[in-house]
Amino acid sequence: MRTGKLKTNNGYLAWLFLGPSLLGFSLFYLLPFVTGFYYSLVDNPLNGTFVGLHNYGALLKNSSFLSALANTAKFTLLCVPLNLILSLGVALLLNQKLQGRNLFRTIMITPLVVPVASVVLVWQAFFDLNGVLNSLIHALGYPPVDWMKTNWSRIVVLVIYLWKNIGYSVILFLAGLQSIPAEYYEAARIDGASRRQEFFRITLVYLTPTTFFVFVISIINSFKLFRETYLISGDYPHNGIYMLQHYMNNMFMALDYQKLTSAAFIMAAFIVAVVLLLFIVERKITNMIN
Predict the structure, then answer these.
(1) Where is the ABC transmembrane type-1 domain (predicted)?
(2) Deepest in the core among 155, 183, 207, 268, taking most CB within 10 A?
(3) What is the per-residue pLDDT for 87?
(4) φ, ψ for residue 14 (rounded to 5)?
(5) 214-253, pLDDT tens digit by residue?
(6) Are 104 and 95 in contact (CB under 8 A)?
(7) What is d(CA 269, CA 59) in angstroms, rounded to the nearest whole number?
(8) 147 Cβ neighbours under 8 A, 6+ residues apart
(9) How far apart are CA 66 and CA 260, in angstroms?
(10) CA-to-CA distance for 143 and 159, rounded, in angstroms?
(11) What is the pTM of this model?
């Protein structure tokens, strides 16, 4: 009897502790999710008529949305592999016994603690028409470039993304590298393995879980660069960097909740599909290793 009563009391206590979190989750996540999905299926948020997938069909015929979708896909396909390759390369260097490597590790973390507003001011001062970079170009005898109003804006956004995300990815890769037993490399050298063979058959194989995690985080972060891009270039930037987040922000400003929520759910479905695909690939690779 005492055991049963104790379990019941523990159950009540557990719900007591979970209650605030569940309430917050329901209020700030679950309820907006359900409401947003409802808005995407009606023609008006106030006493609207159910139209099914009509809003999604209309959105897929919208040229602005398709342009934003294409730009977002191109940016993700470019920035994520670059972030993986560069961060892994830097992690491999910092994993060696180099002088001052602790200082470089600290520098890698710096972008994570710098406020967004400060970052934007720095990038604006650097890439503005009258900024630092154009001053250097002018000093060399070349005409200034309006970086954010030309195709160069894509490179600017890419640089900002890499600057912001490489440090975190490097730390993750360093943790993964240091978890690989040194005995594996020693045994490989005894067997006559080259550095290239060690990298592809030991390092990359045992970095699979870390690489998968960094890949997923990089994809998610590629959709989170809106603040910096928006603060630098405004509501309607150059066509090359007009992303899904810009489109949704403009629909919000226009109070067009149908297009806003439909675009949001399409983007969410895309992210979920990519992550699920990565989970399947990672599981197959892990089974092959084991």
Answers:
(1) 69-278
(2) 207
(3) 94
(4) -65, -45
(5) 998 998 888 888 877 887 887 778 888 888 888 888 888 8
(6) no
(7) 15
(8) 127, 128, 129, 133, 134, 153, 156
(9) 14
(10) 22
(11) 0.81
